[in-house]
TrEMBL record, chain A:
Pfam families: BPD_transp_1. The chain crosses the membrane at residues 14-33, 80-102, 122-143, 173-194, 215-237, 279-301. PROSITE patterns: ABC_TM1. It is found in: Cell membrane. This is Sugar ABC transporter permease. It comes from the Bacteria. Keywords: Cell membrane, Membrane, Transmembrane, Transmembrane helix, Transport. Belongs to the binding-protein-dependent transport system permease family. One of its GO terms (biological process) is transmembrane transport. GO terms for cellular component: plasma membrane. Residues 75-300 form the ABC transmembrane type-1 domain. It comes from Acrocarpospora macrocephala. It is a multi-pass membrane protein.
From TrEMBL, chain B:
PANTHER family: ABC TRANSPORTER PERMEASE PROTEIN MG189-RELATED, ABC TRANSPORTER PERMEASE PROTEIN MG189-RELATED-RELATED. It is a multi-pass membrane protein. It comes from the Bacteria. It is found in: Cell membrane. One of its GO terms (cellular component) is plasma membrane. This is Sugar ABC transporter permease. Residues 1-15 have a biased composition (Polar residues). The chain crosses the membrane at residues 28-54, 92-116, 128-149, 161-184, 205-227, 267-288. Residues 93-288 form the ABC transmembrane type-1 domain.
Amino acid sequence: MRHGKLTPPVLRRYGFIFSFLIAPLVLYIVFFVSPNLQAIQLAFTNSRGISPTFEYVGFENFTKLFDDEVFWAAVRHHGVILLAMPLVSLIIALFFSFLLNLGGGQRNGRMAGVWGSGFYKVVFFFPQVLAVAIVGVLFQAILRPDKDGILNSALGLIGIDPVGWLIDPNLALWTIIGVAVWQAVGFYVVLFSAGMASVPKEIFEAAALDGAGRFILFFRVTIPLIWNTVQVGWVYLGIAAFDCFALVQVLSVDRGGPDNATTVLPLEIWRQAFTYYKFGYSSAMGVALVFLVLTFAALTLRVTRRERIEY
Amino acid sequence: MATRTVTRSSGTRNPGTRRLGTRRQGPGVFGGLSHLALFIWTILTVAPIVYTFLSSFKTNTELFGGKSLALPANFHWDAWGRAWEKSNIGQYMINTVIVVAISTFFTMLLGSMAAYVLARYRFAGNRLIYLLFVSGLSIPPFLALSSLYKVVQNLGLLGTHVGVVLVYVAFSLPFTVFFLAAFFKALPDTVAEAAVMDGASHTRTFFQIMMPMAKPGLISITIFNVIGQWNQYLLPIVLLPGDKQDLWLITQGIANISTSAGYEADWAALFAALSMAIIPILIVYVIFQRQIQSGLTAGVGK
């Protein structure tokens, strides 16, 4: 109302803005904003289940949290996942996307991927469209600890004894990380392929012409050129490392076991809320999780910021 | 090797590119190793799925007893029948199709309405509302778990598909608004201005002119939302508790079959149920793989 006059067109304009915003905004506030704000409030209460009565207990939930071994186990697991899962996924994905886009050398004077790259991209991406819950059940069968589990049968062919992929407490978390990598790689192959496709081919061709071998082409030319995309992938996988709920809940023994060896914060948040009905305590864990995720995102953006290469 | 012959022939036609790094590196060895690596990853990707499918035809003696890698002797479909009856996969599938269709429709409708107004109209509070939507991108869904349960319960929507749809739409809005606002902002002003000159109302300009122009972005985000909502597991298990099993969604149903009674000694049926959940996705993926890949990666690429 900059001009102070509510002429019919101005009224119509505001009416239009209002009518378009009201439904999404109300829905979003009721089902997203308000639950999140209430969660912060709940974190300072002893709320149990849907019982309407609760008391404010100050920081009690948080002090309890700091003494909770399971909480710290979960935080440690996020640390391990955060170090291993993005790194392994990105390295494999970078390698494959390089092969699929530039690894074939030059064809008719153009850089090209190895033979069959279209096929590989389709196949590698497929795990990404499967629901994590389905992937969990799938691998439960594959990773069965007895000698008839599919992976153990395959290893049996080369004389390796059955491995307790999910029941060995020292191995279970790594097995779950492996399954997460299995599902993630194809996505980043496609993402990096798109990144490589947006770089003018002449740059790669000029490098090859100057005698750059494949290793130089990969480490000194390709990676710097798509560094932005790699960084985005890193942030995205890092945030995924703070999730892992569905995979651990479905795949691990005893939901986070054996003996909490694979548990993660989202799983504990869910368990505290819907197994023990400790809504207050669960929300305090939620606050801790948000704090961890935002810290990670802020740190990553600070550390990996690097001059973008213009082309 | 195919690559080498192609390289050579192109080299003779195009002398400028003859001195290739690839040649010095020995494309034979490198090409062989790279194909081996790609082949191994292909097997790693495909084998679990093929194995699941084949195992659904096996008998228990074939699944155990040290020869679980062998092909099934006969293609028995009876495990599929048992799985269909026991696991309610069909029911879960229908439930999921209905829920995801409705919630994606409303996500796209409401999301593009909000994004359009926020991207192309200046008014007091615009920036604030935009930031409110976009800030949702950085909040993991786990924070609001207990309180969301309470909110939905208080509205009487717990254990209903309506509740699930409303929550799906709300949780999908941050990303949808963020992405589509950028898309609408990039559309040229001239067309919209011409429409207004011609006397088209704001609403009509939106539905008849701006929406069709934004089609590529709308398709990408629709695919993104369909897959995201189809694969959602956390929200269904919170919002559709165990006593509402007939309303369950596919991810819940599948996760449950591995733990529920009746499957303990019936692995073939479990594999059949898994196959039933995977095969439709596989078919849709093969048909729309290009759109699906670009839709999903568009979400991260921005």
